[in-house]
Amino acid sequence: MRHDVLADVLSIMKNMKDRGVAEIEVKPVSGTVKRVLEVLKAEGYISEFAFVEDKRGGYAKIKLTNQINNVGAIKPRFSVTLEEFESFESRYLPAKDFGRLIVSTSKGVMTHLQAKAQQLGGVLLAYVY
Fold it and tell me: What pTM value is reported for the model?
């Protein structure tokens, strides 16, 4: 039984990137995973992805770029205010302005930079650099 689908998908992405695999299939896929993949594509960490419905929950086909050094889920899912982003950046990212925290906000899933620009807090989901 899977408890954290997002963590499983991000772990598979990291492991396959380390092995040099450019295209992967992951399953199962949740709504949160879909929104996180959209953010990763917008930021250039994956080149494309597609969801295939197979009457068993579906799966995602993901094409990786060579931009990911590390990716992972943040557990526990910390609630973060606008003022607290700086401390979590230094905790999960290797350097300032290098990498992204992925945050679930009231306006949807976005990067921490977008959340700062919109003056939003939220719940930390993942990091990537």
Answer: 0.92
**Interatomic CA distance for residues 71 and 40, integer angstroms:** 10
Taking the alpha carbons of 58, 28, 80, 97 in that order, is the dihedral positive or negative?
Answer: negative
Identify which of 119, 108, 129 has the alpha carbon closest to the alpha carbon of residue 85. Answer: 119
Rounded Cα gap, residues 20 and 118, in angstroms: 37
- The owner of tokens 């695999």 is 21
Tell me the CATH architecture of domain 71-128.
2-Layer Sandwich (3.30)
Find the mean pLDDT for residues 80-105: 95
CATH 3.20.20.70 fits 5-64, yes or no: no
**Can you tell me the distance from the alpha carbon of 107 to that of 8, in angstroms, rounded to the nearest whole number?**
25
